[in-house]
Design brief:
The chain is an alpha/beta fold. It is 33% helix and 15% strand. It has 2 domains: 5-96 and 287-316, Rossmann fold (3-Layer(aba) Sandwich); 98-277, 3-Layer(aba) Sandwich (Rossmann fold). The chain has helices at residues 17-24, 56-60, 80-86, 98-113, 116-124, 151-162, 176-180, 189-195, 215-218, 238-246, 268-271, 286-304; strands at residues 5-8, 29-32, 44-49, 67-70, 89-91, 143-147, 166-170, 185-186, 198-201, 226-229, 252-255, 275-277. The strands form 2 sheets. Strands 8-7-6-9-10-11-12 form a 7-stranded parallel β-sheet, with helices on both faces. Helix 3 links the parallel strand 4 and strand 5. The protein is elongated.
Length: 317
Amino acid sequence: MDTPLAVALDLDWDDLEPEQDALSTVGAKLVRRDQLEDAQLGRVVALLTEGIDVTGDEMRRYPNLKIVSEFATGYDAVDLDAARELGVAVTNVGGYCTEEVADHTLALALTLIRRLDSLREQAREGRWTYVDLGSVRRSADSIWGVVGFGRIGRAVARRAAAFGFKVWACDPQLSEHEIGAQGAEPVTLDALLRNADVVSIHAARTGRDDRMLDRRRLALLKPSAYLISVARGAFVDEDALADALDAGELAGAALDVLMDEPPDRTDRLLNHPRTVVTPHAAWYSDSARAELRARGVGAVVDVLSGRQPADLVPELR
């Protein structure tokens, strides 16, 4: 009998030995997408991905496909309707980087609020007496608005509260009681945008909320406010954000996610003097990477062993 194949569609680690070792326990072999031959399509039982689009047509290429394992928290790139129709399991690795993303969110915000980039350059220039401090608000006098109050949003709220911020939150999936029980003030999105000094986005992408922060909503932000985007690039109208920053209608923005990654080197937000951009790295720590890889391939091993994976996405349970 031919050895079943698991295809790494876009896993970009040089060393895939841990995944191969795990798959060998169930008699499967791991191959990269560019190594797969047409004659082997019938042997493919699993697709491993970090976020590349997995459409219904892609799944139908493999008549014996059993699972699509998303090595990420979000799984909006996988066609769940097609997976359900074809009887293909879809898994993700939710919660593996909650603490890391929350830490990164605070680091980005504090870099802007405390004007660390500017102060670093002034120190390098020898400016210790005539320092340009600009406008710096005290945390205890400020409101932190959390958009999306799931695991990461709540972890950010706890950190922001520890710094003295008053925390407001909006999440259409939660009741006011559920938000209030976590110590945050429940508000509408528009009210949050009008009043918050820092707004951080932690919503899960469904496709219905793309450009949630469009030109109208960005205009609600105070000129002294900061926007922190660490969820999905699709939530923010990037042209409108760049225009707002150009016009001084927003104090600054910090972005770990963009619509196009990597962006063109001439990208307005990448090069704007009022932005801090990091390369989709908020998730990273040594521990988070190890958990991501172990759970991602572990789901495949579960399915090939006839077990329901613990990380099956909610829509397919």
